[in-house]
Amino acid sequence: MQYKYKKKLQNAITYFFMENKRSDCPISCSLEVFGDKWSLLIIRDIMLRGKVSFSEFLASEEKIATNILVNRLNHLESEKILVKEVSPLNKSKFVYSLTQKGADLLPIVIEIMDWGAKYNKNCPRKELGKRIKSDKPAVIKELSLELKKKVK
């Protein structure tokens, strides 16, 4: 019963935000989905770092608070960016995976990484960043093919 209530509340919140968007500009509409401080980092962790569980997201270097992580995961799930499923390895835990809608954010995530490395000297390019700088289209193609195998 509690799960049904939670889902109804999530749907009401999503409906409220969809009906009360700032504008009809595609950038503004996109930012309503993933424009907060944490959503793209969660997407990055799934997409590029292979993280799938709540505890793995909590262990990320950015140190997201548990209540914010719960909120962001619920929001991304309600926006159909992520799918939450019972872990096949531990029935008492959940795992998250990207939907096609979430996987379609790959070029955006890559561009943001490239931009951040280019203009912020405190964000040096690591292995993936160096590959992006060398041949961005090939990296996007390779990662897209990998994501296709994992998309729910």
TrEMBL record:
Domain of life (superkingdom): Bacteria
UniProt keyword annotation of Transcription regulation present: yes
Domain called HTH hxlR-type: residue spans: 25-124
MF-aspect GO terms: DNA binding
Keyword terms of this UniProt record: DNA-binding, Transcription, Transcription regulation
PANTHER family named among the record's database cross-references: HTH-TYPE TRANSCRIPTIONAL REGULATOR YODB, TRANSCRIPTIONAL REGULATOR, MARR FAMILY
Name recorded for this polypeptide: Transcriptional regulator, HxlR family
Organism for this UniProt entry: Chitinophaga terrae
Lineage: Bacteria, Pseudomonadati, Bacteroidota, Chitinophagia, Chitinophagales
